[in-house]
Amino acid sequence: MDRFGWSYEHLLGIRFAINAFIASSIVWFTLRELGFKSAIWAIASMLAAADPEPMEARRMFRCRLVNVVVGCVVGFGMLLLGGAGEWTLPLALAVTVLVSSYVVRIKTMWRQAPITAAIVLAAGISEGARFAGLQSGLLKVAQVVFGCLVGVVVSLAMSKIWLVKPPVDEAEAAA
What we know:
Elements: H1 8-33, H2 40-49, H3 54-82, H4 88-104, H5 112-127, H6 130-161, H7 170-174
Helix pairs in contact: 1-2, 1-6, 2-6, 3-4, 3-5, 3-6, 4-5, 5-6
């Protein structure tokens, strides 16, 4: 670090770029091999979970996973109960936000719950059929979970391979 004049943040940025390259390659080529034409949901989720600091990556993964489950449950429930009607989406998003905010209460990534519900419902509404929407929604949610999992695994692996230690505060070093 000192030789090149790089700070801790510079090194984390470089490690994050490497994480993003490795994880997006894994996600992209794996999903292509499995027959998915688009991996955008998985790539976006991977980036959200691929924090260069391993403790933060684990925390984000856990929070995102819990909120994805909330969004799935509400989205699928509304699709089964309400069908693909025009008011299903706004109602489901409001219910999801309330459940995420007041029942689950994991503020980090709490927006993921209504996003996931929207993914599920949009699939059902665009397909025009409940069960086609369920299948399409499940595939998209599986991509989100896969992307998150790859992001956190790559982040944890890179933190072991390339250890970047935060700077030691002078007061801490003296003690």
